[in-house]
Amino acid sequence: MVGRRTPLYQQHVNACARLVDFAGWEMPQQYGSVKDEHMAVRTAAGLFDVSHMGRYEIRGPGAGEYLQRMLTNDLGRLAPDQAQYSLLCTPEGGIVDDLVAYRRGTDEWWVVVNAANREKDLAWLEQNAPAGIEIVDRSDEVSLLALQGPRAAELAPMQAVDLTAVPSFGIGRGQVAGVPFVISRTGYTGEDGFELFAPSHQVASLWEALVEAGAEPCGLAARDVCRLEAGLRLYGSDMDEDTNPYEAGLGWTVKLQKGEFIGRPALQRIKADGVRRQLIGLNGAGRTIPRHGSAVSVDGPVVGAVTSGTYSFWLQRGIAMAMIEAGAAPVGTTVEVQARTGSGQAEVVTMPFYRGSAHRAVRP
C-alpha cells in the first residue's frame, strides 16, 4: 500500500502506527489500543493528524457573497475570525459535502472539506466562481492537526496562546516550538478542542511538542468512534449527493431566509413536502453491535439500513445511525438489526449518544 502521505508520515511510522488506506491516503488507523486512544480523547487530550483533509483559500472582492451563494448556512452572521459548519448542495438539494468555513478577513475566507472530496469540491467551487474570485488549494503547504479532549487547553504548549480569545467556532493565532499557526475551536469528537493550521515544513515540530506535553497520538479508528458517539455525520456513509440536509438531520444548517443559494428552490420544496427518509440513532441492546449496511426492520418489514455503527467504549454498548423510511420508527421504538452473526435488537434514541466538553451551546 503506497498512497498519498501527509508531512507527518515519518512520525506515524516512528510511533509504530498501523497505516491503512483512507481516500487514497496512507493514514494511521491506530497506534496501539483503539480503546486507549478513545479514552484519551474523552478524559485528557488526543492528537490527530487530519492533514489529508482539503484546505482552500478563497479571496477577492465579493468572496463572502460568492460563498453565501454556494453554501446553505448564513455566512452573513460571521464576523472576522469566526467559523461556521455548512453544506455544499447540488441544485437538486443533494449534499456535495459538509465543511467548515472560516472568515479570515473582509475578502479572505478558508474552507476545510473532507479528504475524499478534495478534488470534487475544488472543481465545484471553481465551476461556480465568478470573475475576480481566486480559489487557491493550500492543502499541501498548510497541514492540519486536531487536538481534542477536556484537557487540551491545559497542555503546556497551548499556554503560549491566548485561548480566551478563541471561543467556540472562533479563530486565533499563536506560536509553539517556533512554529506559527492559526487555531480554531471546532472539532469532530464531541469534546472541547482545537484545530491547528501550520506550515507543512514545520508541522512535525508542533506535533512533537504537543506529544511531549502529554497529547496522545490517535488514529482514524478512535476518531470514528468519538464522532459517532457525538452524533456527527460522516460523508459517504451517513450522507451523500443522494441525501438532502433534512434527511440527514442537518436542516439546521439550511437558512432559506438568507436569499438565493445553490439548491435553495429544491430545499424549499423538500421542507414543505416533508422527507421520505430520516437518519435515526440506535442503541444496541445486549451484545448487538449494528454495523454499516445492516438491514433495519420494524415488526418484520425492512425499513432501512445502518449507515454507521460501532461499539462505544465510553457507553459500553453498540451504537449506530441508520437511514430509514420517515416515521417508521419514532424515538423509543425497538427495531431488529440484521448482523453477520444474526439479528439483534436496538432502540431508537435521540442523538447525540454522548455529550462531552465541547463548547457548542451556540453555533454561529
Low-pLDDT parts are 359-364
Percentage beta strand: 25-35%
According to DSSP, the number of beta strands is 19
Per CATH, which architecture of the domain at 9-51 and 140-229? 2-Layer Sandwich
- Please give the order of strands in the largest beta sheet: 10-11-12-9-3-13
* End-to-end distance: 41 Å
Folded structure, characterized:
With 364 residues, the chain is of the alpha+beta class. Among the domains are: 9-51 and 140-229, Probable tRNA modification gtpase trme, domain 1 (Gyrase A, domain 2, 2-Layer Sandwich), CATH 3.30.1360.120; 276-349, Elongation Factor Tu (Ef-tu), domain 3, CATH 2.40.30. It is built from seven helices and 19 strands. It has helices spanning 9-14, 34-43, 63-70, 118-127, 203-212, 220-229, 264-273, and strands spanning 18-22, 25-30, 46-49, 54-59, 82-89, 95-103, 108-113, 134-137, 142-148, 171-176, 179-184, 193-199, 216-217, 277-284, 295-297, 302-312, 317-325, 334-339, 342-349. A six-stranded mixed beta sheet has the order 10-11-12-9-3-13. A six-stranded antiparallel barrel has the order 14-17-16-15-18-19. Strand 11 and strand 12 form a beta hairpin. Helix 2 crosses helix 6. The longest helix has 10 residues, at 34-43. The protein is globular. The N and C termini lie far apart (41 Å). Mean pLDDT is 95; it is low at 359-364.
